């Protein structure tokens, strides 16, 4: 049996001599596979992609959208006349550009291999595509169950034998086409059972599959951080041919809250010698894939390997023969930026619905606008006009995009936006870099937050005096810090705050420019909004710390964003920039995903800032008298009465837990939402009762708490949701500002000891209730039947565990640890296979 050590010691020449390993007689297969789950691309987008592939010197496009129902779910159904005509047009267009159009079918979801009717359906479907001009094909058996029916097992014995029979039969039926691809069920090392080198399934595929059929392989994992040459060599020995890499480095269908704009990375130049081709399965959102294609093309065209570290001191780009991911990233961003604004429109942030329609989106695509292509000026590079209201072909009704571009239609904000700069675009892309890695700007922000938390006490008023007192009294507890060092740390804290603010301003500038011209790339606006929205919270919390409100520290979490201490698929750990921001800002005991794991339904449409609410702000709060309730009960109060009831008590009791959200307008900032919180609602009520008792001075029985006092949850909820906040919103379009206020308050209260927060709503405040429910708030019981109390746990309650359960959990942990500590040779799921 071939061992791992044997594979590692084999050179390329020895492997080329393997009896069924064919010499590299075909051109390297390079291009794009539309193979993701989610809304398929439109026909105009695919044509645009084909032009881009031709411009970049790529040669292959594989049609395999998982949610084209006739590709997978209803694979037996032939395409209708109109559908077939669209595919035929696409095939002919690909031929005119010398692009190999590969049609893929995924029958494995429910095929019966021994059923003649099913095999005939597979052949008939491929023959239909052949009749309209398709010359290249693929059969995909990924993401399916191994289990065979009794009839299939009786005839074939194993899934590998059954799949090989179908593929070989179709390959022969189609007269052995020059390009025929097969995706096995075990398509990466971790899915090979028990290991890559010991898999009977893969060994059968390699032995029995026709040598003219190429086999897809994703690497050590479904989404590997890197693909090693050794892994490819091992696969080649097992499959008797070099693999065709299906590369998921840019795929985001497993988490559409993320996208990937970073450089093509973790694939060495020598990998090209160990595989027959590499196809990118990219971001679901079509217009976000331009940087990936540009970087991948540079990788393919390069001949030497370079590193960002080795070239950090270079003043000019490295030679084209050398691929350096960092330089490739910067060039891709520069080229892409030219396409994002054609032309640039200096306009207002908020747009009327009548200007671009209620969706605010556009079918315009920009892939074919590259100015650095070898075919620049060719008439074939002219962008086609999209068909009105075009929908993806055979889109499954269940596959709706989670990105909505609905516009509020509000006209209050008018901001003249500047053109997008390369620094702003790179900063935004750093927040959406690669599955296992953030870009430099994102890391600077995350690392800066961690450092500033760890040294937040130096910003507290009187900290130096307190240290001096302990030193003089001899009660320093071993902490004899030099006062100059403290001042130096304080100066460094302020400097770090300034650096993070500059990073945030870059991303804010990107959001502003993109939002003002969102018709060019609405998907990018949504992601820019997500990053900008959470950074509003960062600015507010750091400003709160700078004011000296965090003097007693809870040890912050350790870094997990520089290099995750795990290996596995990216969906095993929430690793998005937004969620890592939440992770870095909250104490270790608190649940970051509860507050920061939810995407805005619609992108933000305003430039916001959050700061502490002060007494001198109260004259500005008149617009907030109106709640989002239909009856506007609070609007009947005068401003003074309103302030006395809903603001002054909070400002008197806990001013550090009061915040104001302001929106930037052409004439200045205007308040749009506020939140006021108290850490302990019981103490707040007792304080009010004491004030009333002092005021009454024994003149009679104390009155019942006034109606405007916050309702208190009943037992046992009050023990878990003891922190209260009052939320005021100008109108429905300011709900995004309200979300950021809640997140800000929850973070600062968490560091002050809050374990759960709650608020009161009127039944008519539907938008407010919807917002809270979207943030995982739950309804609490209360004696006030005319109000809805909604609460959110910030810390999971302690669970009493029996000794047997504790012993069982310990055994599970020990077992998991043993699995993780197994050697790479035994497991076969690291880069070395």
From TrEMBL:
UniProt feature, compositional bias: Acidic residues: 803-816
Region (Disordered): 304-325, 362-398, 803-833
GH84 domain span: 28-304
InterPro entries attached to this UniProt entry: GH, Glycosyl_Hydrolase_84, O-GlcNAcase_cat
GO biological process: glycoprotein metabolic process
Enzymatic class: hydrolase
Reactions catalysed according to its record: 3-O-(N-acetyl-beta-D-glucosaminyl)-L-threonyl-[protein] + H2O = L-threonyl-[protein] + N-acetyl-D-glucosamine; 3-O-(N-acetyl-beta-D-glucosaminyl)-L-seryl-[protein] + H2O = N-acetyl-D-glucosamine + L-seryl-[protein]
Comp. bias intervals (Basic and acidic residues): 384-394, 817-833
Compositional bias ranges of the Polar residues kind: 362-378
Pfam families: NAGidase
Protein name: protein O-GlcNAcase
GO molecular function, one term: [protein]-3-O-(N-acetyl-D-glucosaminyl)-L-serine/L-threonine O-N-acetyl-alpha-D-glucosaminase activity
